[in-house]
Design brief:
Length: 446
């Protein structure tokens, strides 16, 4: 995704038996790995991961195992369905329909139809196709530091990679307003300026003959650094996009499935119901599955003009995995727990921020939280080098986290939803110790 995932190993092993050397010899050196010395993980359970040397780590980062690593309920559902039948989607199968019904029951309003895919990238690609079919336009609005997948169409709209392909001529990147550190009296001016930028971007697309097809956004603006938006911004963008004939796509790959604690979907934080909702990563707890949820009108219109067939999307095994995740979430009331624990974590982080000169604002919501790391010399400048030191030190302390944002200085903590208060206390305790161990100004050695 962003530069958070592009740590280059400090060595290139030469021995044929070295796993990293074998990886480089087959997959190549350009598929990024975390940490200076890449971590070989061999097993997991709940919120814990174990490496090849037997060291155990608290997972404070991974949202793919949404209901915990090696969740027995999900594993058993996959196993039992695989023993029964698995086939492509041109045959009827009750498990697929059962999952579609269960997933759609988590939506309100006009969002009552879905397409199943294999990933979030496929879901976003399909959503763009649906929007273009409906609007007749090609113009896309995204944030200026975003990532929504790795297909050709999505690479053309990606702004949040250290190295990225040129933006398509039909794309306009928006600077998303962040009220962190802004005086309350200045927020209305920031909002007005930001919406004026949206107006200008729309006018530019129209003048170039692209028109406006979609505004595609992640409700938490995760890649951007977990931005704190001024109230009314998303509503203002949606109003302008729709007035120009476009649609709104909410990318819930990182924000969805109860992670915010306040709702099943991130877009529910705003007074906007998108026409298209995309999802992926956490749906199957590690089993590949994605989806586009939309209106009956858009699904039927797309189907009249296009054929969507995907061999593996929505197969019975993937559907069994997805259904097991939803049932486990309901059974354990994980969304409410994410809300409660998220509030506790935020208070702890705010307390840490008051005592550390290297912490700026506290960011995030529910079980997706972070802090921006700044220089302690009074400048409050982003401190990406210190952020990198923190992440490496936390690994040594047995806690896995990462970093994100255009300056690579926002600690990204996004654990499985089975994370409990006892796990939060471990993470926060180690984080406080790690912050206290940071080098002082003038003493930084990389």
């Amino acid at each position: 995704m962003t530069s958070e995932t592009t740590t280059t190993p400090s060595r290139v092993p030469q021995t044929a038996n070295d796993l990293l050397a074998r990886r480089y010899a087959t997959i190549g050196p350009h598929s990024p790995l975390f940490y200076r010395q890449p971590l070989e993980l061999v097993s997991g359970s709940g919120v814990w991961l174990t490496d090849a040397q037997g060291k155990v780590y608290l997972d404070g980062y991974n949202n793919v195992p949404h209901v915990g690593h090696a969740n027995p309920a999900v594993a058993d559902a996959i196993y039992q369905q695989l023993l029964t039948v698995n086939l492509h989607t041109r045959y009827l199968n009750s498990r697929v329909v059962e999952y579609a019904e269960a997933l759609l029951s988590k939506f309100d309003g006009a969002l009552e139809r879905l397409f199943l895919t294999n990933s979030g990238s496929e879901a976003n690609e399909l959503a763009l196709r649906i929007a273009r079919q409906h609007t007749g336009n090609t113009g896309v609005l995204v944030s200026d530091f975003s990532y929504h997948g790795n297909t050709t169409s999505l690479a053309e709209i990606t702004t949040g990679l250290t190295v990225h392909e040129p933006l398509g001529a039909h794309v306009r990147a928006l600077r998303i307003p962040d009220v962190s550190g802004i005086a309350e009296v200045d927020v209305p001016v920031l909002l007005e300026q930001s919406l004026a930028d949206v107006d200008a971007a729309i006018a530019s697309l129209q003048a170039a003959g692209h028109g406006v097809s979609v505004f595609l956004f992640d409700p938490l603006f995760s890649t951007e650094g977990l931005l704190q938006l001024p109230s009314g911004y998303i509503e203002g963008v949606a109003t302008r996009v729709r007035a120009a004939g476009g649609l709104v796509i909410s990318d819930e790959v990182q924000s969805g499935f109860g992670r915010t604690g306040s709702g099943m979907w991130g877009y529910q934080m705003f007074n906007v119901e998108p026409e298209l909702v995309t999802m992926g990563k956490p749906m199957g707890n590690g089993h590949p599955i994605g989806a586009v949820v939309t209106t009956a009108e858009l699904l039927d219109e797309f189907g009249r003009h296009n054929m969507f067939f995907n061999t593996f999307a929505g197969n019975p095994v993937s559907s069994a995995a997805g259904l097991a995740v939803l049932r486990y979430m309901d059974q354990e009331d994980l969304m409410a727990k994410a809300d409660q624990l998220g509030k506790y974590i935020r208070k702890r982080l705010e307390n840490i921020a008051q005592r550390s000169g290297n912490v700026g604002s506290v960011r995030g919501r529910g079980l997706f939280f972070g802090i921006d790391i700044i220089e302690s010399d009074g400048s409050r400048n982003p401190a990406p080098a210190l952020t990198k030191i923190l992440i490496e030190d936390m690994r040594e302390r047995g806690v896995l986290i990462s970093r994100v944002g255009p300056h690579d200085n926002v600690l990204k903590m996004r654990p499985p939803l089975v994370f409990g208060r006892e796990h939060a206390d471990i993470l926060l305790g180690q984080l406080e110790l790690s912050l206290a161990s940071l080098p002082q100004p003038g003493n930084l050695v990389l």
